[in-house]
Q: What sequence folds into this?
């Protein structure tokens, strides 16, 4: 995929007056305008039902907005179809709250899937899977059937799958919801590492412990509206 | 190359996971091909037989008088105006007498006291050896009987009519069974694929999410369609061949099968049946997966 003007200029995600509602009259997002820079780590916070998950799904274009413009890496998502959309998604790592894991497959197969679709070498895939499992302290689960794992372990596998293909944009929904403090720290390390190596990371969460002392931008949503934006602090 | 490695592996995995429904589809395809090919084989052989029997088939028009060269030409023109024929032979009274004498052989002396022009002159019309001509013979005979100077038109009327109705009936059976079985095959294959898609909804959605191209998602299903068509139709044809061998083995000797030389499909026809089956099953797969990809 070619990087065009917008990403060269430093904007990875651009939303202009984006709204989304579900029948009969549930407003999920109302008139959101937002720019996320390339290489930024960005927090979206808010209570359940604030619209965080909907916004993430629209950025990966798994759901289209009712109105407004969404651009990712300079591409207007409304204009992307077929292979072009697929190629863009290969560059977006996604970890949703509902995991979307294949519970009858092994842990390794679940993580490998994001690399298989971009035709990575089997040896390269195996090496990367082992490395990620090591970072998340799940090395012994390589051949375990995913359905046999705990919720917390499944959450980490989802995260491993999201970062496996070295995406340029990482969308993570409630990454620490089922985790203890120690594992939360390890997950945040993994996300920070991805960010340090150039990926734009967008984290939707209501877990205050992971953004309380953050120096990154924090946007707060409430019932589909942006209610505040805390700017990044310069260290 | 890596694309094919991935999609073949996916197709294999899917076949392993959904083998009961795949097996049902395979059997449906086999049975459909078997039934259609059976009627088709009988029909083809009937047409071949009509050609063999048609060798002896001719219309004889008995005339009042020997036709002169001009009259012969007129008759020839009238006949060919109605339909194309293989041959027209004029038999004079004298020639008819000679033929009759030859047929009598050693007993030809019974003709000694009979005048040589006692047999009428005739025109023998040999129709083209195809089913259409055979079907037209009745109309042809009616037309010929109205030509001036005609006494009578003779042909194996009863046999031709029976044969005509039988082949008509058989062609309707072949057409109907063919159409119904084509619909059944497409429906069964697309239904199985739809079931498979339904069972793998989560996986297919995940594939879309992680950026699998439509070809990456679609190709394993198309491979399944191709395999169902190839294996299913080959099984169907092979079963028909076994049935054909069994019939030949049990009904050989003097009888119907000796009268009609019963033959199996040529390799070209077999390849065509298999090829068409593959096209149909792949089309069934394609329509199902396209519906999913559009969502």
A:
């Amino acid at each position: 995929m070619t990087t065009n003007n917008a990403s060269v200029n430093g904007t990875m995600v651009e939303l202009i007056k984006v709204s989304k509602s579900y029948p009969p009259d549930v407003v999920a997002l109302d008139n959101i305008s937002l720019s996320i820079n390339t290489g930024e780590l960005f927090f979206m916070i808010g209570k359940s039902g604030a619209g965080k998950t909907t916004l993430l799904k629209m950025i990966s274009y798994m759901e289209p907005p009712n109105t407004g413009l969404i651009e990712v890496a300079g591409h207007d998502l409304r204009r992307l179809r077929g292979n072009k959309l697929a190629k863009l998604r290969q560059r977006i790592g996604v970890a949703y709250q509902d995991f979307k894991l294949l519970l009858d497959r092994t842990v390794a197969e679940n993580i490998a899937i994001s690399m298989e679709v971009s035709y990575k070498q089997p040896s390269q895939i195996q090496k990367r899977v082992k490395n990620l499992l090591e970072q998340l302290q799940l090395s012994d689960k390589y051949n375990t059937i995913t359905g046999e794992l705990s919720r917390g372990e499944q959450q980490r596998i989802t995260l491993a799958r999201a970062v496996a293909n070295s995406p340029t944009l990482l969308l993570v929904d409630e990454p620490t919801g089922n985790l203890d403090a120690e594992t939360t720290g390890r997950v945040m390390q993994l996300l920070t590492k991805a960010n340090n190596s150039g990926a734009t990371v967008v984290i939707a969460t209501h877990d205050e412990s992971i953004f309380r002392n953050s120096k990154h931008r924090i946007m707060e949503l409430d019932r589909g509206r942006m209610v505040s934006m805390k700017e990044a602090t310069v260290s | 190359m890596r694309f094919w490695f991935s999609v073949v592996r996916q197709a294999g995995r899917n076949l392993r996971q959904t083998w009961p429904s795949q097996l049902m589809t395979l059997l449906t395809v086999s049975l459909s091909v078997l039934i259609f090919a059976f009627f088709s084989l009988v029909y083809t052989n009937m047409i071949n037989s009509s050609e063999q029997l048609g060798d002896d088939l001719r219309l004889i028009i008995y005339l009042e008088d020997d036709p002169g060269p001009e009259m012969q030409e007129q008759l020839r023109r009238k006949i060919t105006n109605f339909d194309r024929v293989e041959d027209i032979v004029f038999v004079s009274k004298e020639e008819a007498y000679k033929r009759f004498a030859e047929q009598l052989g050693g007993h030809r002396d019974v003709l000694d006291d009979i005048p040589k022009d006692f047999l009428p002159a005739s025109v023998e019309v040999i129709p083209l050896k195809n089913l259409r001509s055979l079907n037209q013979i009745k109309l042809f005979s009616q037309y010929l009987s109205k030509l001036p100077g005609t006494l009578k038109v003779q042909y194996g009327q009863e046999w031709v009519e029976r044969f005509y109705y039988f082949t008509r009936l058989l062609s309707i059976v072949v057409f109907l069974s063919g159409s119904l079985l084509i619909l059944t095959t497409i429906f069964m294959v697309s239904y199985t694929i739809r079931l498979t898609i339904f069972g793998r909804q989560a996986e297919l959605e995940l594939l879309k999410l992680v950026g699998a191209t439509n070809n990456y998602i679609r190709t394993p299903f198309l491979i399944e369609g191709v395999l169902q068509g190839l294996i299913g139709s080959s099984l169907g044809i092979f079963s028909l061949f076994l049935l054909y061998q069994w019939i030949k083995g049990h009904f050989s000797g003097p009888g119907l099968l000796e009268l009609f030389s019963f033959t199996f499909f040529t390799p070209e026809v077999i390849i065509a049946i298999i090829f068409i089956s593959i096209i149909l099953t792949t089309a069934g797969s394609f329509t199902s997966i396209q519906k999913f990809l559009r969502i």
Summary: The domain at 39-64+82-230 of chain A is CATH 3.40.50.300 (Rossmann fold).
